[in-house]
Design a protein that fits this description.
Elements lengths: L1 H17 L3 E6 L7 E8 L2 E9 L4 E5 L7 E8 L4 E7 L4 E5 L8 E5 L1 H29 L3 H28 L5 H7 L12 H11 L9 H4 L3 H12 L6 H18 L3 H17 L3 H10 L11 H10 L12 E4 L2 E4 L8 E7 L4 H14 L5 E9 L4 H7 L7 E6 L5 H6 L6 E6 L4 E3 L4 H7 L6
Parallel strand pairs: 1-7, 11-12, 12-13
Antiparallel strand pairs: 1-4, 2-3, 2-5, 5-6, 7-8, 9-10, 11-14, 14-15
Length: about 450
């Protein structure tokens, strides 16, 4: 009988260890979100795992049997990039959060990993805010008595921070969360600093003191890349563009020197390149290619990615727009050969795009009395929609109409990096891109400010 109890008990433990775990989420307030997507984070990338429905702010998902431990992300608002991250270490997870403030207003009621880490972030966050506030007041203080008082309460809070950090590091020793607790430890000077410049320099000097760039758990989460981006983009800025370039280049070089694993170095380099390309920062894109991308091992130089980045910056404001060549009544025409107008508007649209059908009449109406503007309207159509385009374009007889066959799979789209319609580009007489308004409303705001 005793043996049977032991075997039965073993089976219960065995089944519980290998049973699929669930994640229960509750949005408070519920709002009107209807879906979620679960991703597994892997450095700068994220891998799709599953998706599901949100009903009145509540959702439940079952982790796949083969789900590996690590950091996961639940995305529920793609347009505004709203999501929550959680540690998965073969535990059930229960979480409640505010959908508008998912980072600051979140609480875990199941999963020791997440409960400990979230408690840690909340407690040290309060102390960090106090220390930072005291430092800011100290910058402005010109009273010795007040300075002494500030130094006294600063020392007290610093001592409190040390105790709290030590406590959580100790209590999380057996948890995956310990990696994040240790890496999140923030440096504070033993004494208040009077000069903001010296204070900033101290932060930068010690920013990576507790970050292990070789830690696979940190690398496979978004933790390291988030810290790197904050360091480069928030601690290395200047009102002078020239100085900002210098600071950012130096900070990137510093970061890259700390990364020893080529695979992760590749991820970081590509992340910087993509970010600078989105910002249309040609100087930094060029710097990243020459000083870091080209110095990666040949096997890690992704030329498809390089081509993507170069396509992204083809239409940066200030560069010459890609030429557009088309045939009109059997005669070859081109954007570059047009000379009669001061400005050119290139608009990508489609006869099957409801938003386009609303914007195009507005565009025509606004430009009808502006004789110095020529519109090239590129219709992105399929074989099936071409007939509708032929009919629709006659409503805009003042425009030059060009057929972009195969919808988004044609040279015009690739040259201009277009992935949605409508899409507007304003060029000057030299065919240099001078504005990229989001819609006709934005175009109306931009046009009066153009050089006359």
């Amino acid at each position: 009988m005793f043996k049977k109890i032991i075997v039965f008990g073993f089976l219960i433990v065995f089944v519980s260890l290998f049973a699929q775990k669930t994640v229960n989420g509750k949005m408070n307030p519920a709002k009107k979100y209807t879906w979620f997507i679960l991703y597994k984070l892997d450095g700068v990338s994220q891998k799709f795992v599953t998706n599901g429905a949100v009903n009145n702010g509540v959702f439940t998902l079952t982790m796949p049997k083969d789900a590996t431990v690590g950091m996961y992300r639940i995305l529920y608002d793609n347009a505004n990039n709203k999501f929550i991250d959680f540690i998965y270490n073969n535990e059930d997870v229960d979480v409640e959060f505010h959908p508008e403030y998912p980072t600051s207003l979140i609480k875990f009621s199941k999963s020791k990993e997440n409960m400990v880490y979230n408690d840690y972030l909340n407690e040290v966050g309060v102390i960090h805010n106090k220390l930072d506030s005291i430092q800011v007041v100290y910058f402005k203080s010109k009273d010795n008595k007040q300075d002494k008082f500030l130094s006294k309460i600063y020392s007290k809070e610093l001592e409190n921070l040390t105790k709290t950090q030590t406590l959580f590091e100790s209590s999380s020793t057996s948890l995956m969360a310990n990696n994040f607790v240790v890496a999140n430890k923030r440096f504070y000077s033993n004494n208040l600093i009077k000069s903001p410049t010296d204070y900033l320099a101290t932060i930068k000097d010690h920013y990576f003191d507790n970050l292990d760039f070789d830690n696979p758990i940190l690398i496979k989460s978004s933790f390291v890349i988030d810290r790197i981006m904050d360091y480069v983009f928030y601690l290395n800025t200047s009102e002078s563009k020239e100085l900002e370039y210098k600071l950012r280049q130096e900070s990137i070089d510093n970061v890259m020197s700390k990364i020893k694993k080529d695979a992760f170095k590749k991820q970081v380099v590509e992340s910087f390149l993509y970010t600078f390309a989105q910002k249309e920062d040609l100087v930094m894109v060029d710097y990243m290619f020459k000083n870091h991308f080209d110095k990666l091992p040949i096997s890690l130089q992704d030329y498809e990615f390089k081509s993507l980045v170069l396509d992204m910056i083809k239409t940066t404001i200030g560069v010459k727009a890609p030429n557009i060549v088309w045939k009109e009544k059997g005669e070859e025409k081109s954007l570059y050969s047009l000379k009669e107008h001061k400005y050119y508007v290139v608009v990508f649209w489609s006869s099957t795009c409801p938003h386009c059908l609303k914007e195009m009449p507005e565009l025509q109406k606004y430009l009808s009395d502006k004789k110095d503007v020529k519109v090239l309207a590129i219709g992105l159509e399929t074989k099936e929609s071409k007939i509708g385009w032929v009919d629709e374009k006659f409503y805009y007889e003042d425009f030059t109409h060009i057929l972009g066959e195969n919808k988004f799979d044609n040279k015009y789209v690739k040259d201009y990096g277009v992935n949605s319609t409508p899409n507007f580009f304003i060029l000057n007489s030299d065919k240099t891109i001078i504005a990229k308004p989001y819609d006709v409303k934005a175009l109306k705001e931009v046009y009066p400010k153009l050089p006359k």
